[in-house]
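Hey team,

Filing this mostly as a record. A colleague (T.K.) asked me to run one chain through the structure pipeline before their review meeting, and I want the input and output archived in the tracker in case anyone asks later how it was produced. No errors, nothing strange. Just documentation.

Input sequence:
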Amino acid sequence: MENTFTSLTYPTKTGISVHNKGNFVETYNKNGKLIHIIDTKEASNKIAIHRWLGVASDEEVKEIFDGHLFELIKTGGYTKLMADTSKMDGFFDGVNQWLADYYIPKLLKTGVKYNAFLVSEEFFSYLTDEGFDGVVESIFTTQMFGSEDKAIQWLKSVNC
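Output structure:
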């Protein structure tokens, strides 16, 4: 099932550009570097996969989450997410509280119930140390994985 998202042609706050490429929605920063991909190959299972690559500023992260990613989740009827942060440089330090206080409650209103994190060992340790996994788990069901296959298998096994 191909996504119905169209490329952004209007100016964004941070200068990102967003392009629909079939089952993928790619986001580039103002310097033309790919920083985020949404993969809709599991749309038939109500799973939206999004991948963070390299470095994104806090404002870019917020604009992606609250912009086209949110719209795709809402309009596509997705109830399960897989967030791949394994190829991300850095952490979400500046947006963790924003995610917990603003974005995740807004996301839950769309019907999302499950979230799988695909993380590197370093990122998993950071999330655990910061207590972010506990914040997210208290809001909706979340699991952390080191393998995409295991994350997708788990998401397919839960019912919404």
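Quick notes for T.K.: The CA atoms of residues 62 and 95 lie 7 Å apart. The first strand starts at residue 17 and ends at 21.
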